[in-house]
Amino acid sequence: MVTSATEVTKPVEQLEQVVVRFAGDSGDGMQLTGDRFTSETALVGNDLSTLPDFPAEIRAPAGSLPGVSGFQLHFADHDILTPGDQPSVLVAMNPAALRTNLRDLPQGATVIVNRDAFGERNLAKAGYTTSPLDDGTLDAYRVHAVPLTSMTVEALKGIDGITPREAERSKNFFALGLMSWLYGRPIEGTLAFIARKFARRPEIAEANARAFRAGYHYGETSEDFVVSYEVKPARLKPGVYRQITGNTALAYGLIAASVRSGLPLFLGAYPITPASGILEELAKHKEFGVRTFQAEDEIAAAGAALGASFGGSLGVSTSAGPGVVLKSETVGLAVALELPLLILDIQRAGPSTGMPTKPEQADLLMVLFGRNSESPVPVLAASTPGNCFDMAVEAARIALKYRTPVYLLSDAYLANGAEPWLIPDVDALPRLDAGFTTEPPEDGTFLPYARDPETLARPWAIPGTPGLEHRIGGLEKQDGTGNVSYDPDNHDRMTRLRAQKVAGIAADIPELEVDDPDGDARLLVLGWGGTYGPIAAAARKVRARGGKVAHAHLHHLNPFPRNTGEVLRRYEQVLVPEMNLGQLLKLVRAEFLVDAVGYNRVRGVPFRSSELVDAIEGLL
Amino acid sequence: MSDGNGNLVQLTAKDFKSDQEVRWCPGCGDYAILAALQGFMPELGVPRERIVFVSGIGCAARFPYYMQTYGMHSIHGRAPAIATGLSTSRPDLSVWVVTGDGDALSIGGNHLIHALRRNVNVKILLFNNEIYGLTKGQYSPTSPVGKRTGSTPYGSIDHPFNPLSVALGAEATFVARAIDTDRKHLTEVLRAAAAHRGAALVEIWQNCNIYNDGAFDLVRDEKANRIYLEHGQPIRFGEAGERGVYRREGGSIYVGLVVEEGEERLLVHDAHAEEPSLAFALSRLTLGAAGAAPVGVFRDVERPVYDEAMAGQLDAARAERGEGDLRALVGSGDTWVIN
Description:
By secondary structure, chain A is of the alpha/beta class. A seven-stranded mixed sheet of chain A has the order 11-10-12-13-15-14-21, sandwiched between helices. In chain A, strands 3-4-2-5-6-7 form a six-stranded mixed sheet, sandwiched between helices. Chain A has a five-stranded mixed sheet with strand order 18-20-19-22-23, covered by helices on one side. Chain B is built from twelve helices and twelve strands.
């Protein structure tokens, strides 16, 4: 952008980090705005972490409180771990957005509002009797009341085919342009994006591009904004990066597992928030031989995946809590059949329908125990969006090697949250060997339930293999032959074998690592799942304030890493922060006889690092 | 299969018997169906290793254990869904589902209608004995109103399903009925089902001599009450073809005496009619209503097969974009370098 020669160039201040929250009506395009700002930020090379916050409804009444959609982005010139405890800047497109988000703002934060949206009707919808712009409500903040709507409409005058009503819809791009100037973000990417996305409606592309430039120009010229900011690139590990969300990473990880094992991927799924994105992502990649099957219900989704596994595919079913619970019976069958089957649970607030778009981590005990009878299944959990890729590959590795269903847990925050991702070297990924049995044994009798002495896995002979025809089923079966058996001793033996097979996986997974820089902390914080970022950030803060704390994060929840007990017993205190009422806590206490304590909140939002700092320092 | 010298050897029924002792009750209709299927399999011309039987739960569902092929005895009602995953991912296999009136029309109803709607390439054999046998005699979705059983001591108040009407309503492209002891005809029906590309539903009336003996005696004992459907032929039956099927002005059909109604007015069976109306009308001729019932192929039409459509999309994607490149995928989107 070329500034006019008559204008004074404004000073640029350097900041180490910023937390921006965009908030507006569901129809205002806040997710799109947030995504674009994130992409621009990624290209600057900042470290970043995002937290989209959407309502469950597609479109609540315009201007209403339940209709507010938000997007928070934390970016910095150094390595960061969370989307930020509190925004330093709130961009509120209407009174409802302001009202819903004000309580999260610290004193002195910047508030940019769309002044044009603060008329009587909108104020009433948000429950305001007087305008917060005038009545002192915002005295504690640095307020910029920008006539976003009217300036957008003005800028778009003269574009053929855009009515003033339609012009208003581009106001989110105006806001994006303003913010892009305010934080020195590059604009070429967004301009290219607009041209691409709206290629089929050139008048809309023109409108959005103009609104974007107008917003940027407003920042440059308005007296309301006297300074702009810059946040320098972060010094991350060298390499090629891209931005990724947890759901995309899971999809890529599953494809990687398919490629590295040579098995075609079969996904059986049913649309459910916040997992549908995985189905939609995988449906795009048919050139990898990925079969995506949108089943008639959650049960059929898992059943079809199991049928595909029976045939030698890598069978996967993705869902959230309310869908995963429906799959229990099918997983139990997979336990009895001893076939690979991946179940991905993108956890959300419950119980029952709960809060579909809000994160929680309360399905752990369900996936461990929610099947009839003794039904052991390995359980894994991802800790960051990028880690979702690695865990998908690991889950496939275990499922294929041990011929077992495997649960992989993620959550609504990881699913949609974005962070920079060091692009992996695909050739360095583990080779996964399905290890099909292709020949009858020398003595001629194939035993479908004989066991490998090391893994205790049974042979996997897929239909189509001559000479190995056999029948398997959900009834208890005789050790070795696999014939239906009701023999009492056999059932006891088989039950123990199945349990041993899963327990033995501990020898094949990494030991639990502990982050304890000084090596002499007496308090251990033990976490799992998406709390990784907030816990790690809190540990950093505690240490910066002189405290000592160790942090260990479990990726394998069943079996636990073989040194878990030993690690826990090294510490005088063990704190287990969880977004549930104490599930890993129960397991740790029961299995290791350690008097661990929990920090438990079930608010449907990720932990703030500050509350964990308080919890930790409270114990020190 | 091949002999030691690589020559193709014709399989026999015996080759399809597994080593398992068959455990149905003496006198059960399932024995006859098993024999018919084992007798028919060699004709399929498919090697045993490429045949799979998938079942749910019930007496019928024990079937896979007795066939020397691949098989899965799965969970109640879910066989069509499991078979869908298997069939669509392994187009080289011949996939058969064995189910019953409870397994398919009660808990499994949803999976059945969707497999039929999608026209997945599976052959579904529904053994209908109008009772729950394995769990000892409770009524089923096909039991008549008033049926007294352990769970309905005062008589069932449920109006029953008509399985073939349900199948036709679910857009099934192949719908047929056979009788367990009518071996020759059952084999013809299996042959037609096997030749059909897409989903085939074959209802097999099966006598449960322990919990519901005699439910189909009207046609099992009396050949004269069987209305054998043959495509292109006028529909007449009886000891000497004295009865026939006719259409009323309103469109519904009925059974009448040929001497009274006239030979020229006999309905001609068209199994390949695009619209299922005739097949549906035929499905409404029940033993209860007409004292006779049609058997044979009600409907056999072509529609895109789900498995082929799915594979077609994969092929099209490869043709357009080339084989998937994992390196390109993970590195897609906007990237930046940190030095």
